[in-house]
Amino acid sequence: MIRPVALDSADLTAVAAIMEHYVEHTVATFNEIPPTVDDWVQRHADIAARGLPFLVAETAGGVVGFAYVTPWRPQSAYRHTVENSVYLDPAATGRGVGTALLAELVDRASAAGCRQMIAVIADTGHPASAALHRRLGFTDAGRLRAVGHKHGRWIDTQFMQRDLVTG
Questions:
Q1: pLDDT tens, residue by residue, 92-133
Q2: Which residue segment(s) compose the domain that 16 sits in?
Q3: What is the pLDDT of residue 50?
């Protein structure tokens, strides 16, 4: 089940735990310090104040993933363009949860008046994130080489983009 994140300890604790895994063990995020639950409360408030979606995927066992959009850049001319983030509990990968989350995120961002969605994907050496985005209509928009350094390695980022107006 995909639903808006609840501003309660259970949802945001699960979100923080999922992100902690990616911060500490992967290069999928360039964060080097895991955001706390309080950090997530603030992020939720910022996203909600902008009328943008922040979603969780829930199974009988609890929250197994989350996705949200934030403004692409702070300048006002970018106000209709958002960047997405999608993270899953490692045990939930390969079961369609990411596809369901991103599809719902695209629909809700479009309904919120967003026109373009950008994905900034760290080159982890695994094609899953780029494949997920391609399945949902994202196209390649460029690459920045060696722009991040984490866990002793230089990391490229791949940009993908989706028009939310024409799909």
A1: 999 999 999 999 999 999 999 999 999 999 998 889 999 999
A2: 2-163
A3: 97
Give CA–CA dist 41/36, Å, rounded: 9
Indicate the angle between helix axes 128-135 and 97-111, nearest 10 degrees.
50
Residue 5's closest CA among 27, 33, 37? 37
Residue 13 burial (10 A CB sphere; 0-12, 13-18, 19+): middle
- Our separate counts of H helices and E strands in the chain read 4, 7
Nearest by Cα to 9 from 87, 67, 62, 88: 62
Domain count, the chain: 1
CB atoms within 10 A of CB 143: 12
Beta pairing, strands 116-122 & 81-88: parallel
pLDDT given at position 166: 86
Q: For 60-76, how does the pLDDT look when each residue is reduced to its tens digit (9 = 90+)? A: 889 999 999 999 999 99
**Cβ–Cβ contacts within 10 Å for residue 63, how many?**
22
Domain of residue 153, CATH code? 3.40.630.30
pTM above 0.85, yes or no: yes
